Amino acid sequence: MSDDLSPAAQFAAAAAAEADAKASAEAAAAAVSTVDHVSAFPSVSASVIGVALATASAAKPVFAAVPAANADDSVGTAVAHDNASERPAPAPASSDDALESPSASAVADAVAGLSVNPDPSTSTPVDAAAADSAPVSSSSFGSAARHNADDSYVSAAAAFESAIDSAVASTFGDSEDAYAEDVPRRANAAPAQAAHRPKANKPIDFADEELFPSLSSTAPPRVAPSAWGSKAGSVAGGSSGAVRGPQSMADQIKLSQTTEIVDLPMMQEPISDIACKIMERTKTRIEISHNRVLNTSTYLISGKPDNVAKAKREVCSKLSPRITKIVQVPAFVRAQVVGVRGKTLQKIQTQTGTSITITRASASVTKDPNEDDLFDLIDISIIGDNMGVLSAIAQIEAITNKRTTKRAVQLTDIPREAYALLVGKNGETLNVFQLAHPQIQIRIPSPIAADQTICIAGEREEVNAAAADLRSAAHTLMENSQVVKVSIPKRQHRFIIGENGQTLIDIINATGCSVLVPPPRSPSDQVTVRGPESSLVQTLGLVMTKANSAILETVDPTTVHQYGRPLLYAQRALQYFHDRDRFRRIESEHGVTLRVPSAADAAAASAPEQVQIELQGKDSRSVAAAREALVALFGAFPPYHFNSIEVEPHLHALLSGRDGANAARLQAARSVYALFPGDSISRNILVVYEGFNPDIDRVADAAGRERATRELLRKTLEEFRTTIQNDDSYVTHVAKVPAKLQQSLAKASALDGLLRAAGAADADNRVVVRFGGVLAGQNEPESTRTTRKGDAELDEDEVEVKGLASAVDNVIVELSKRVKADEEYVRLHSFRGEVTVPQQLMPRIIGRGGENIKRIRSERDVAIDIADGTSSGAPGVVKLQGTREDVAAVIVQLEEFVERMADQTSEIVSVPANIHKALIGVGGRYVKRLEDKYAVRVQFPSSKREASDEEQGSAPALNPDQIRIRGGQKGVEGAKSELLELAAYEVEHSHTARFKVPAASLPHIVGKSGTHINEIKDESETKIELGTPNNGEVEVTIVGTRAGVKLAREAIEAVVAEQKSQIDVMLSIPVKHHRFLIGSGGNRVRELVQQAGGNPDAMSGSDACRVQFPRASENTDDVRLKGDRAIVEAVRKSIEELVAERERMTTTTVQIPVSQHAFIIGRGGSQLKQLQDTHSVEIHFRSKSSRVQTDATGDRAEDPSTVRITGLPENCESCKSALLALVRDETRMAVPLALHQRLGGRGGSLWRRVRSEFDVQVDAAHVDKIPARRIDEKGDMDNATEDIVYRDAESSLSELKAEWILRGEKAKLSKAVDLINNEISKAGTTVEAHVRIESRLHRFVIGKQGANIAKIRDTTGCEVNVPKRDSSSQWIVITGGRTGADRAIEMIHEYIEERD
């Protein structure tokens, strides 16, 4: 017997070779049942089944009727080999060619593979492959065995059962005697006698944990009824029928064996050698099966748990192809993924065997520091085998979930053409999508942001749903859109885009179409327009309009002149023209815009296209003129007008002179302009002949002028060289400066400070400093390079200074001061000290991101170096260097901290997990305040922050409802007390109610801009979340106190009930009645709503009723009523009644003299309004303006005295009678103007008396005008010496009259006329008294708000006129009777005397 087989396998093989036909025939049914049901018994040992199948395959004709199961693509097992033909198989004792058939081995291994699947409802890739590739599956095999009488199936089943029996007996130590007694009996029995087996045999229970121990540490599997019990009963028992318990061998197998299944992508290269080496190193057994349909490999690893784990890791690492996955997480979790000093990231890489790279977080836009920007994402690249990558992703996701439950997703699979379509016309499409997902933030990039993608953020589930909807919407929009491409010259693309893409955004908003403009670096000139077919024409029109909104031309300076080095000429010319501001002059003269390369861009240009000048204008004429002017400008300066020389920057001031005096002199004398660089690095000096030198201008031929110009420039440059060589005021000195100090001095700010301190910062005293200890390009651009053409090499501790001798000396002195100061600083800060700190306190010493160390360094100017303990648990050492005082202070500070931390304690508080988020607060606000207040650290199970090293190493993991508080004893107690109080408050305020409301009521619940829902939240002090509409309903979640939740729910349900009572009614009212129903300023419609019990100002609610009339331009009869049912019905009834009345109305007229219209209307229309209200009619008088307009045009119109009355017939008649009753008789009479002034007018005493005694209305029909004369005019009164002067007022008014109209009853009119005539006869002579009163006293005569002067007029019946405030006159004029005038004078003096 081969030594390669285990004892159990050898024993099983021997027993199988001796099995008789009778036992084999009966065991066939059991084998079939085994194949069908083996997956239901996860407790069956895989190794036992494997050995049994290996033994059963010894009989060659076993699988004769079964196809080869696709030998090339079979699910056959191999022991560290790639195909079945290469697999070594243990030879059974009874035959030398036992396992020669690959098909037999394949089917046996497939059945063995089924036995290790713990869940019969699921299938591994191996199972799936077997089902797809093999013509006969496990179930079909069982069916064939039951219904086919072919002998090969019987033999196979018998061999299978015999092998099972033998393996079980060998593994579990069955009685040898019983088995030996059974073997010859089974060998000699005939197949037909299989039913007469001994009844003493006890059936084997395959669900028995003792007989068939599990290979893993999982919970005991469920026991299912077995079909094997009645058919394999005689296998385990002998004549005694007793089954002994497991012996030591079974116990060892049960405790030490396990099996793992690993599915990996199929490797292309051979893997057998690698698998064998893994088996040797890990002492495990590895079986491999391939599925070329799914392109996967399945590895079955068996052995001790530790070895299996090690082998699994090596298999995943070495037999899986390396893959790369990129995971996007919010940037604010980067610190948690990396961990303290990268420990978390290093741990993930070690555990998963992957390489992880994290991109730097992008610069976030300004935002609230307490809020996390979900759109700010970072990419985490993970490289490794498939399982390692998946494990690393899972760990990173777990860390992210602790930090936030929200996610942001970039939808890179949505094409850019769909972005504008998703936004829609004026953002309509995006708004609809946002309403469907209110909890989701959506960010669609600008059309010009080519490197950005659509990003959505929110809760994970909602983000996934929104992403799916957005992708679906994008797909639908793309399918329903048309594409048009148009070629537009590249230079016109910027007009389509506009400044910052605004023009492109305007086109998209106006049309809703997508417009894609190729990027500037793309050679394509095609603009793509995509959108609905109905909008494409409009979009193309806008695109072409914008593209052609300006005329463009270009000028290439390299083609203006024939020159061997055209690019050099263009660079020189552009540099000179920029300096002389020549381009701006062309722009202002021709009204165009020039896009000219800058001098720096031109200097860096390598091709003629990079120095071209573009002209842009609104009309072709101005652009053409500007182009001619530009070409003429370049034509006036041919290449020989330019030359240059390289000079050390520090010598530029020597050549230009103080304040540019030398350069100005050169320009004036020779018309040569010297252009010096504006920085302290460039050496090139450009000289330009500007064309106004008489010596050159007099040369007739062009060749001669060119030679003369070249000679002039050559002579100028030669003089520059001579000046430099003969000058001894510019020197070069080298100073010794330590290289470390040079690193700080070479920085731009430090170098500028050095030069300013030395007085060498201005242009006249400019110096050049080179640092030998600074690498080329390392220092800022303001400092020069370390080496340059013509420069000597400097040692590391040397600094070279070039420039004016006095400036160089000052810089050297300043450098010496800096060197001495640095040496003194080093001497003072050379004191060293160290502090020993327990290893677990090191993270607290360092602080988050090293903040504590940075703070100590900034406060004490101390260098700090931290050395961790060399061994685990060894104390760390904090090394300090600085001044003695600072080092001593830091040592005391650190020792106090260590002493304080010795009092540290930790306590765990149990708080329901659902309120942890509320205890933490937004951005950790609450927990940070608690930590600062009590000097403790509070850790939650789902903490957003990484636990410190000592917490990770020593503290046990927290349960979901636990919170750990670490710190000083008193601080922990205080924090615990406050935390529990806050938790009790949150529990009280965490009552939750969920219910559904109709989606149609959602806008009314929310209110405009969320006002209503916010009011409910404030009043009930609850949190309210509204879900998304689903099947016409919206789920509402309310969180708060029990009373608050009840109050909020009642308020929301009241809105829902209220909306159910709301109706929308449309009435058909003729347009002619709309104005009447609305009323003046909407008063009538408001009254209708009020009368119906509604509130005309309410837009919604139980008392709302909105009446909407169409606009005059709409010309429709529809009137809409919307609001509460009862109120709407009442208003509807009132409107219909009013309309019915209006239909019955008629119009009648009455003739009333125009002169009495005003009287009938009354003051402010009071009498007219009373008549209309009393009779329920409308009365229309012709306005004065309409009468005047009719007279002016000459058109015939109705009589001005006609008054129209509109209303019900009976009301019109009663109103007509009332109007006629108001019409009065009238008479006219003339009175002296003096009397009119004294007694007439609306405030006159005579008019009031006539009105009160006779009910006669008096009006002035005409009043003669008196000659205009100001009462404060200077006249003969200036010469008067008396203070009171009397004059006869009637002498100037004797011929002037006033005509009065008297209206009233005929009998009373005569009495009123008699009274007026009597007053005229009684009236005496009218005098005009002039009283001199100082101007400053006039205000006392007038009195407060004119009270005094009004009293004087009423008492005396005289007219009193006081000069205006800005007048210089002192005379007060009193007009009236002599007695009244005297009394008025007395009253004036009385008021003046009483002023105090």
TrEMBL record:
Biased composition range(s): Low complexity: 86-145
Pfam family, one: KH_Vigilin
Keywords from the UniProt entry: Repeat, RNA-binding
Region annotated Disordered, chain positions: 77-145, 217-247, 941-965
Keyword Transmembrane annotated: no
Domain K Homology as annotated: residue spans: 321-401, 406-475, 480-548, 829-899, 903-984, 989-1057, 1061-1140, 1144-1224, 1225-1321, 1325-1393
GO molecular function: RNA binding
PROSITE patterns, per database record: KH_TYPE_1
Domain of life according to the entry: Eukaryota
Xref: InterPro entries: KH_dom, KH_dom_type_1, KH_dom_type_1_sf, KH_Vigilin_N, SCP160-like_KH
UniProt-recorded name of the protein: K Homology domain-containing protein
Species, as recorded: Coemansia spiralis
